[in-house]
């Protein structure tokens, strides 16, 4: 075997030192959930800075030829002191009374301690080089390798940086004091380390006032620790507004607080302000956690949500394949619950988990950015059982306070970052709607499975809408693709109305002992509300050439292999404030929807003629831009509705005010052209439309390659301002708007198809009997989708199992009547 020094010299040119902007994956394997704490540790490529577990590092070496890896192993130190004691003879810490960090009544955070072992490993012979070995090697080797090792260990890992970025939901604003901050010429110079509070000698949580250079301690925590408020008191005495937290200063920035504005702020002149007191920002290194990092640590510590566990029951922890918990990354329970359920669907398992070796072999050079690789990695992590092991003993002898059933589990950081990238909500660490995330993920699957097996077909079905003109009795049929059945909740059908009224009466009288009564809604009433005809009062009938009334009936044109039902618990109150309906619904274990199958046009039934409504203005009248009430448009936009929809609402209600415009929006939200630009009668196009000649040929070709016609691709791109991703979303959600434009395999419209053949169908849907059995449901606890907690129950081998983030237990009393999303699988006749 060659001398290790010679080997290092031979690979020296491939060893890089991380630069600002380099992505360093030192916490998680790119292809598995191995970490430095895992058996075998983590190997970080010293060229690409990708991390690999022991089972994948040989494959990366063989594929890329890279030989030098930094091997990081990390073991948790035993806690020396009881968590419930401050360790200094002080009484036990008080419970926090405010959801805040580092302020009175808020949370204190302790940093977990690890012992790390770091060494260079040279492949394929796995020769090891530690720091002591480097000291005996030539200077050129020692310098390059030492700098690379130090750079990798000092760099913020990608997962850590993303976590901080996602959690920092409130964007910091530039301080009003930054541009013209007064700084005293008092000769004060601050050393680069070793800071102490000038009043009490405290060495942690130290802040420097940017006006006079005073170094003082921060605010007092709820238990009296953390600081003695000297920096705050100094502001109150002097009025000097800005302070920087020493220990958080790096070349990229620092924590700056404005006492006057009472918030964390940005200081665009921070390098200049620091240099005034002798601090070179470009040479500083971070030695303390930032306020955002503290907030993340607190959220993960207190996010146990004991109330979700089934009341009065001791739950038996479960371990093994398909029974793997997922760590909550800070309000990621919605993602955890959805992905746990999806990977019990055979289509997702066969597409991603069964093919994981091929997917990894075909992955690009940076697999952390590849959708299929990260989905396969997640699926394998959930189903293999490799991570379904009890969490390590925290070392607390009084472990009764610890939640039972916790696992090591997996932390889906790379997956969450990838599927949320660019999305205004899923890229953050705020709580989200599980149903919206399910549809978002299905959309991503659709985009990434254009040529190959598509597991989302398991949920895809066709809906038939039948509209019957009440005056002519002629009908119109349209079909659209959907993935979820949204089941209305008819509150007026509650079976315990008297109890509800009595409880409400007692609450209004101020009776604090009034019980909380949940409305009992029969599932049959919900299904009846879904299937009963809807009355349309403002329907333009092409048969009578006038507005009249009509009925709209919705039926299944196909039944999917797996049916998702959403209980529409979230609604708007009279004041348009979102609220959640507190209801119990007797959702059945088996379901027969055969009676809701669409029948299509009936014998002897006449169809409404395909005639457009007449223009509201005569052709010889000059079309002018409409005069719209800008204040009403603005109010609607602030509620989150699309601008063009708001403009149309104001236009079609004749500028009669916010109430009538809002009613128009609520009545037309399901229209295919709801968000399309306002087109005035008599004009050929509306503002914002995209002429055909300006459409991207590449975008057209991409959509045509998915099996749609060029006309359909053109319409989709026009409706979405020539943005490809939006156009793909649009075309799948507006198939009813494209019903007269048949989809063909060659991308041609029906008119271009060869002699008289029946046009091929649109997006592929499966069909079969409409009989189903319940196999999973997702429940939500809280007052709205923007807060609270999600868990899921899944039926595994005839046993209900509760998945509550890292806790996986046998369920004794699955609360099937309180679910939000229900998942059914087809059963044979």
From TrEMBL:
BP GO annotations: protein deubiquitination; proteolysis
Catalytic activity: Thiol-dependent hydrolysis of ester, thioester, amide, peptide and isopeptide bonds formed by the C-terminal Gly of ubiquitin (a 76-residue protein attached to proteins as an intracellular targeting signal)
A GO molecular-function annotation: zinc ion binding
Similarity-based family: Belongs to the peptidase C19 family.
Gene3D superfamilies: Cysteine proteinases, DNA helicase RuvA subunit, C-terminal domain, Zinc/RING finger domain, C3HC4 (zinc finger)
Protein's recorded name: Ubiquitin carboxyl-terminal hydrolase
Positions of substrate binding: 207, 219-222, 257, 259, 262
UniProt keyword list: Hydrolase, Metal-binding, Protease, Repeat, Thiol protease, Ubl conjugation pathway, Zinc, Zinc-finger
